[in-house]
Amino acid sequence: MATMIFAWVAVGDVVLSVAVVSAAAFFNPWVVGLVAVAAFASLERACCMWIDLHWAEWSAREHDRLERRIEQWRHGGVMSRVVGWISGASASRYTIAAVLTSPTMVVAIGRMMTGEPVGRHKVDRACVAYGLILGGLMTFIGWALTMLPGVGR
């Protein structure tokens, strides 16, 4: 399952985004948008919940590599601020960090930093916000492409 989650983080958003933009250019953008929001949010939530529930057993095998990565992030430019938002108690900052990166990355980073479960409330909030932003944006781009001559319906 960890391999599937890594694949989703690496290319899933891009593949689904291209599909949403294409669908919105040729079908009803309202329907495409609703499906896109649900798809992004539910796929991210599935990945996040798996990470949150199975972190201890997975991280035991990858401990050394994770520690090196954490140190790089703590001292990096942009990621150091995002890591601060993730490891803090504020659900709003956590959600902003998830929208700026991805909920799956935020849950993984949060578990690395604190070792504690992130919790269903933060995961749900982050995934819905991410789905709304990314699904809505990709649908809008697909709809906007129909304004170009020779594209879309």
Note down, in words, how this protein is organized.
The protein starts with a helix and ends in an 8-residue tail after the last helix. It has seven helices and no strands. The model has no long low-confidence stretch (mean pLDDT 81). Helix 1 (2-26) packs parallel to helix 7 (120-145), helix 2 (29-61) packs across helix 7 (120-145) and helix 5 packs parallel to helix 7. Helix content is 84%, strand content 0%. It has 153 residues and is mainly α.
Return residue spans where pLDDT drops below 50 for at least 5 consecutive residues.
none
Mean pLDDT: 81
The count of DSSP E runs of length 2 or more, i.e. the number of strands, is: 0
H and E order: HHHHHHH
Strand pairing plus helix content: what structural class?
A: mainly alpha
Helix content: over 70%
From the alpha carbons, calculate the radius of gyration and give it in angstroms. Answer: 17 Å
Strand content: under 5%
N/C terminus separation: 39 Å
> What is the number of helices?
7
Largest sheet: none
Shape annotation: elongated
